[in-house]
Amino acid sequence: MHYRTLGTSGTVVSDLALGTMTFGHEADEAASHALLDAFFAAGGTLVDTADVYTHGASESIIGRWLAAHPTEREQVVLATKGRFPMGEGPNDVGLSRRHLSRALDASLSRLGVDHIDLYQVHAWDPVTPVEETLRFLDGAVAAGKIGHYGFSNYTGWQLTKAVHVARAHGWAAPVTLQPQYNLLARGIEHEIVPAALDAGLGLLPWSPLGGGWLSGKYRRDVHPEGATRLGENPARGVEAWNSRNGDEHTWAVIDAVQSVAEGRGVSMAQVALAWVRVQPAVTSVILGARTLEQLEDNLASVDLELAAGELVALAAASMPRAEAYPYGVGGREQRSRKIEGGR
Fold first, then answer.
1. Catalytic annotation, pick one of 53, 119, 154, 181
2. Whose CB has fewer CB within 10 Å in the chain, the N or C terminal residue?
3. Domain membership of residue 163 as a residue range
4. Over the stretch 214-258, which tens digit does the pLDDT of each residue have?
5. Is residue 177, in this structure, part of any structural domain at all?
6. Which helix (H) or strand (E) holds 12?
């Protein structure tokens, strides 16, 4: 395992993180604890969860594992999130002081800890003033309930606004952003990655395997069945499959990943993870394994260093598509200049 600082903070984390959205849903408690055992045995330290994952069950399962593993408990860097509904009332959702205060206390209780290393707001809230959210987070840091805070699923302007409001008031600043990022979803490179670099935020990419598409489990024109997310959920799977199966860009990316994997004698998942791990601003890549076999294969990606030619081939096949303006060639020409001047 390799280690990096959590954004510009001094907290050190493994560059692969264990995502726990499957805990209590796709993985029962015994399977979830086995995943935690394997992750820590491999040198992992960052565990990411959220109150909304299986309506609190994920946090509770982690809490019971921590209670039974005092040595690992001292080394774990614990991250959770709040924002989405945990009840039916109008104040049971959002980034208001009222909701976040209760959500944070509930997460601390389920996890069985008195301090969370990284508390993340799960998404932007258009109803709550950003000052209210940031004042609460600054207070939670001062009170010792959280060490740092970060954002998840923010756009570039939302991230930048929040960062500068916090700085203007002298409040604790965010250290991370958790976006979807993979070879099939590189759109964040237009605005979000530059905004994170400008603010000094570390990225914690989720869905680095593109919902399983980059692991090689799906084949062109063969509808998924069995132990895959699309195969096990036909209602959602048909629509998702149809949208991807007819997209030539998707298959071009998959073919490029497969080519590199076959050339190196490794799994496609390892190639996809190795690519994300070396992208600018990335601090730790969140693994979403459902089984021990998947996790062990994912963890093996730490030993894979892609060659320059392989990175070029993957980048070319997965280049994010954009309109000519403002993100395509036309827009880039408007924003470029020669240092020596001239046309």
1. 53
2. C
3. 3-335
4. 999 888 777 666 545 554 555 555 666 666 666 789 999 999 999
5. yes
6. strand 12-14
